[in-house]
Amino acid sequence: MKLYQSLTIGALATASLFALPHIAKADSLKVGKIKDENAIIITNKTAMSKKVAGDFAQYTLYINDQHTINGEKYYRVQTTDDINNAIGYVKASDLKINTTKIVPTKMKTYTIKATSTKLFEVPNGSSRQVIDRISKNEVIKVEKTIRVNASTYIYGTLPSGMKGWINITNDVGRKPVKRNPIQQKAKPQVKPEDKKSIDAEPEETLVDIASQPRPVGEGINHIELPISIKDALKIQMSLHPKPQSSNGIKWKNAQRKDVLNAMNPEDAMVDPVQKYQFLVLNEPQHLTADQLNILLQGKGILEGHGEAFRQASIKYNINEIYLISHAFLETAEGTSTLAKGVKVEGEDKNKRFYNMYGVGAYDKDAVKYGAKYAANVGWDTPNEAIIGGAEFISKGFVSENQNTLYAMRWNPFAPGDSQYATDILWARANANYIHAYYQKLGIAGGKFNFVHYAK
């Protein structure tokens, strides 16, 4: 059995939630998904602090406890069935809640029948929540059974001690649904807007991209892909939800030609801004503390701590500018309570504890628990918090195969799998942001991994 690393949700708050002990179970749990990456999560009802769903929309979440906020119905959503791993409250209309029912467990053990079966972190999990793949004839000790919509999942323990959920829908004795000949011959229904897109954009006319002169120089790599852009585009257009585009007001399914333009690595490669889609993020740039302090000017308590970010980038092998960007996001650019330090009951009264990445700061009391986590690991100076928290950034966001913005968005090595966004302009927008920082420093960037689709 080959062990696969369990993927971490692409948001720092989630990485920190997983660091907490699993002690409290929620009642009446259901599972489901946030419909849109732009849906709002209320992370603290008292302070009414909010954030966009982002990558949480790419995961199956536990849904629990109805709440009324400003007269509207909300549910608490969680990354596990542990209440302590709640990420906040989402409006009911922004959730797709599956019918979930606990059913009697009729077997103490279950023998895997397929050649390769996925083991999930949660029932009805997404591709990002696959823990492992289990080989045929392996035996799992069954602890509970649950039905999600029409699918049946068992939860159990493998001989290795690994636990997880398996879909056994096809092995529970269900009778196949009979269809009459007319139904069998019926063509699949196509929505009017999809039909218009298909009719207006024949696939064969939209798969050519012009090769560009390849940049050369130190730190520049060119990677030949085994898949053509035609085949990669076909996979992207078959995804659910489909690639999305926005007119600035609302999101809609992106047209094929727009997806192709966004995927085109050749034009981006030679663009002075968009080449930053291919900047390698899991390597330090070896910038000086003085350079980093330029970016930190006016950023609250983070100002002047360029040396700490420099050390963090080297210790945890992460791009300094990318690391600083995350710290800005999590601390409201160095102005949050946790960033400025909190005294913790039971600790030295003369000490404050700092948390620059929101590690452990979950919704029940973000400041209290975030500070408590910081105290537990000894983050009693801003520098300790910057360097210590960088480990979560390096492990939770950038993998070896998805170490550029382009790879995080389009995953050209495995199109359609473990992609970080549905917005077709996600990589471009982030490239603009990172390029601006490099411009401010007056430097051109470090290592680039450009990709080229097969012809």
UniProtKB/TrEMBL annotation:
Domain Mannosyl-glycoprotein endo-beta-N-acetylglucosamidase-like: 294-449
Family matches, as SMART domains: LYZ2
Signal sequence, start to end: 1-26
Source domain of life: Bacteria
Annotated region described as Disordered, given as residue ranges: 175-201
Protein's UniProt keywords contain NAD: no
UniProt cross-references to InterPro entries, sorted A to Z: GW_dom_sf, MGlyc_endo_b_GlcNAc-like_dom
GO molecular function annotation: amidase activity
Keywords: Signal
Bias type Basic and acidic residues, positions: 190-199
Family: In the N-terminal section; belongs to the N-acetylmuramoyl-L-alanine amidase 2 family.
Name assigned to this protein: Mannosyl-glycoprotein endo-beta-N-acetylglucosamidase-like domain-containing protein
Species whose genome carries this gene: Macrococcoides goetzii
